Please model this.
Amino acid sequence: MADQAAVTADGYCTHTAPQPGSIRTLSTQGTGPKFFRLHGRRYGTCPCGREMSLTERGNLRRHKPPHA
Model:
């Protein structure tokens, strides 16, 4: 994890770009139709330590940092 995350007044993380080299794409081809919505979804790790799906532009979604 990085240093303490930059947080807004309402508790949301201010990082918008994932850590370099942390982007991965899920492949759920062998799991069947129940998990088809997850196929091809891209995930990345925020410098605050949280992992989440990315937007279409490759930015992190709005999130709160993990509790210590």
User: Anything to note?
Assistant: The CA atoms of residues 50 and 66 lie 6 Å apart. The first strand starts at residue 24 and ends at 25.
